[in-house]
Amino acid sequence: MSDKNQLSLFEYSQPEQKELIPTSSQIPIPAETYDNLTELKQHCQQCYRCELGNTRQNAVIFRGNPQALIMIVGEAPGQNEDETGLPFVGRAGQLLDKILASVQLDPEQDVYICNVNNCRPPGNRTPTPGEIAACKPYLLEQIRLVNPKIILLTGATAVKGVIGDKRGITKIRGTWMEWEGRLCMPIFHPSYLLRNPSREKGSPKWLMWQDIQAVRAKFDGIRNQ
Ligand code: URA
Question: What pTM does this model have?
Answer without folding.
Answer: 0.91
